[in-house]
Amino acid sequence: MKDTFSKADTMAVKGVAILFMLFAHLFNRSQLIDLSTPLVYVGEQPLVYLLIFAMNPVHFFIFLSGYGLSLSNKNGGGKRCLRLYSHYWLTLLLFVPLGCIWGDPQIYPGSIVTIFKNIVAWENSYNHETWFILPYALLVLTAPFIFRQIDRRGYKWILSLSFFIYLLVRLASRWDGKWLDEYRLLFWIDSYFTLLLPFLLGAASAQRFPLSRLRERVPTWVPIIGLPLLMIGIILVRNTYQSIFYPFYVTAFILLFVCIKRPAWLDRSLNAFGRRSTSMWLVHTYFCYYLFQDFIYGFKYPLLISLVLLCISYLVAVVIDRLNAFLQRYLIV
C-alpha cells in the first residue's frame, strides 16, 4: 500500500480546497450576503456565513505544497515560481484589459508603478485574492534551507519554533493590524510566517504519517463522522477565538479526508476541479467581485450563485490552462 498521497488524493484535496475557496469568497462578508437571499439561518446568522469558518483554502494549498516538496527534489524552486508567475501573468494579460473596460477606472490599469507592483505580486490591487502568490514563492525558494534545518534539528524543534512565531504574528495582527496595511514589507513578513506553519505541517505529515499505516489504523467510520464534527468544532472555535487553530484543523481535515473510501464519481469530480484549481483561483473573483458581480449575484440564492460561479470559473480555467500549457511548453524549459 502506498505510503504517501497519490496524485488522485492530492488532486481531490485540491478540488475540495478550490470549492471551499469559491464558496468562501462569495459569502465571507455581510455586504456580499446582502446581495443574495439565504434560506437557512442558525439563530440570526445565515448558514452560508457560518460555513465559511470551516473553509481556509489557502492553508490547504500550502499544506499540500509542504507535503509535496518534502518528498520531491527540494531544488528547482526558481522554475516552480516562474511557472506560477507566468500563469498569473497570463490571467493579468486577459483580465486587466477587461477591467479597463468594465472595471473601476481608478484601479485598472493604474499608474506604471501600480502595474509593476501587480506584475511582481508585491501589490494585488487588480485581484486581491492572489495575495498569497508572493509568500508561496518565498516558501518554495526558502524550502531547501528549511529542510536542511529540519535534517539538522528535527521536526519537533522546527515545528515548535514555527508555532511560536505563528502565535506571535497572529497575536500582533489581532492587537493592531493597521501596520500591516501601512507597511507592505511587514504584511509579507506576517504572511510568510503565517503560512510557514501549515507548510511545515504538510512536510511533517509526509515524513511522519505513512498513509498505509494511517489507513490501516483509522476505522472506516472515523473520517465519515470525524470530518463533520471537525468542521462544526472549528466553526464554533473560529467564531469565538479567531483563526489560530486553522493549521491544525487543515492538517486533521486532510489526513481524515484521504482515509475516506470515496466513490469513483466523487473522485473524478474533485480531480477535475483540482486539476483546474490554479486557474480557477486566479480568475474567479474577477467574476464575483471586480467585473461581473451583478451578474453572478443576480442568481439570488446561494446555491445557484455558487453553481454559476463554479461553472464559469471552470470553463474559463480550461481555456486558460490550454493557453498556459502552450506558453510554458515553448517559453519555459
TrEMBL record:
<feature type="transmembrane region" description="Helical">
    <location>
        <begin position="303"/>
        <end position="320"/>
    </location>
</feature>
<feature type="transmembrane region" description="Helical">
    <location>
        <begin position="185"/>
        <end position="206"/>
    </location>
</feature>
<dbReference type="InterPro" id="IPR002656">
    <property type="entry name" value="Acyl_transf_3_dom"/>
</dbReference>
<feature type="domain" description="Acyltransferase 3">
    <location>
        <begin position="13"/>
        <end position="320"/>
    </location>
</feature>
<keyword id="KW-0472">Membrane</keyword>
<dbReference type="GO" id="GO:0016747">
    <property type="term" value="F:acyltransferase activity, transferring groups other than amino-acyl groups"/>
</dbReference>
<feature type="transmembrane region" description="Helical">
    <location>
        <begin position="154"/>
        <end position="173"/>
    </location>
</feature>
<feature type="transmembrane region" description="Helical">
    <location>
        <begin position="218"/>
        <end position="237"/>
    </location>
</feature>
<feature type="transmembrane region" description="Helical">
    <location>
        <begin position="12"/>
        <end position="27"/>
    </location>
</feature>
<protein>
    <recommendedName>
        <fullName>Acyltransferase 3 domain-containing protein</fullName>
    </recommendedName>
</protein>
<feature type="transmembrane region" description="Helical">
    <location>
        <begin position="47"/>
        <end position="67"/>
    </location>
</feature>
<dbReference type="Pfam" id="PF01757">
    <property type="entry name" value="Acyl_transf_3"/>
</dbReference>
<keyword id="KW-1133">Transmembrane helix</keyword>
<keyword id="KW-0812">Transmembrane</keyword>
<feature type="transmembrane region" description="Helical">
    <location>
        <begin position="243"/>
        <end position="260"/>
    </location>
</feature>
<feature type="transmembrane region" description="Helical">
    <location>
        <begin position="281"/>
        <end position="297"/>
    </location>
</feature>
<feature type="transmembrane region" description="Helical">
    <location>
        <begin position="128"/>
        <end position="147"/>
    </location>
</feature>
<feature type="transmembrane region" description="Helical">
    <location>
        <begin position="88"/>
        <end position="108"/>
    </location>
</feature>
